[in-house]
Amino acid sequence: MPVPILLVTGYLGAGKTTVVNHLLANAKGRRIAAVVNDFGAINIDAELIAGASDGVVSLANGCICCSLEGDLLRTLSTLLRRDPKPDYIVIETSGVADPADIVRNLMDPVILREAPLETVLCVLDATTPPASLDDALQRSQLRVADIVALTKLDLADEGAGLRMREAIRSQRVPAVVVDARHGEIPSALLFPASDRAQAPRDPGPKRPVEERFETLSWTSDQPIALPRFQQAIGRLAPKLARAKGVFETIEQPGRPMVFQFAGGRATLAPGEAPAPGLPRTRIVFIAELGVLSKAELDAMMEACIAAG
């Protein structure tokens, strides 16, 4: 089973390590492997630490943290050989690193097959002047992002968040922008429901703990018409924060496809056959509360399986 990667980028002092610390301390049953440049900056509560050896800190909740030393691909290969394998890998980049270079490295065919890049998170300090986004490095960090997290809002004046959101929009960044107080980010955005879900069906909307987003699922035992699906996603795109799923198409029966939608971009890739008992088509949609109704979603998706 492939292990998805979450890439965390952002300028020096933006709060990336705080975000990673929060993810590790609140894994909620996920085995997360964090790869960080500044290993000593990770500050997990002492009661969570189970042991440390060979540059790896093991946590009692099943997570681990290791230092990014030398070649990134070699580090990832080492993590993927662990038993048990992590459920997710989080990579925290250096504050002066251009994430585009790292994304290119992660497109290595061997790594892409075993550890696909699923989400790019850009952490942005809300106390910095919006004009700082004109910096070439910060523009690059924003350009590759699926999600932008505004940090240090408690230190900024009341209108700082709004001004920063307007500055991000002016850069034509399609990413979802969220507030990240104390490093907290809606987990539904960072770790969308995956093909590993045990429940074969979801009868209705599930709301994450965070009050801004809700998760809606759609399943079917029928293959879908790819052109109709593409049209439906085009109409749904303005309302979606994330979407992910697996389906078979009428045009190519028996060939599962993995669908991803993030940062305004949709991708398709070959997938694996579903586990016994799971429907052939299962897609999770994440949207802001009240923006997308279950009835509207069901109607648009049901039209994708109509004959003709």
UniProtKB/TrEMBL annotation:
The organism encoding this protein is Bradyrhizobium campsiandrae
Question: What protein name applies here?
Answer: GTP-binding protein
The segment(s) forming the CobW C-terminal domain are: 213-305
Q: Which family does it belong to?
A: Belongs to the SIMIBI class G3E GTPase family. ZNG1 subfamily.
What superkingdom heads the lineage? Bacteria
- Pfam families xref list: cobW, CobW_C
Entries under SUPFAM superfamilies matching the protein: Hypothetical protein YjiA, C-terminal domain (SSF90002), P-loop containing nucleoside triphosphate hydrolases (SSF52540)
Q: State its role.
A: Zinc chaperone that directly transfers zinc cofactor to target proteins, thereby activating them. Zinc is transferred from the CXCC motif in the GTPase domain to the zinc binding site in target proteins in a process requiring GTP hydrolysis.
Lineage of producing organism: Bacteria, Pseudomonadati, Pseudomonadota, Alphaproteobacteria, Hyphomicrobiales
Q: Which UniProt keywords apply?
A: Chaperone, Hydrolase, Nucleotide-binding
As its record notes, the protein acts as a catalyst of: GTP + H2O = GDP + phosphate + H(+)
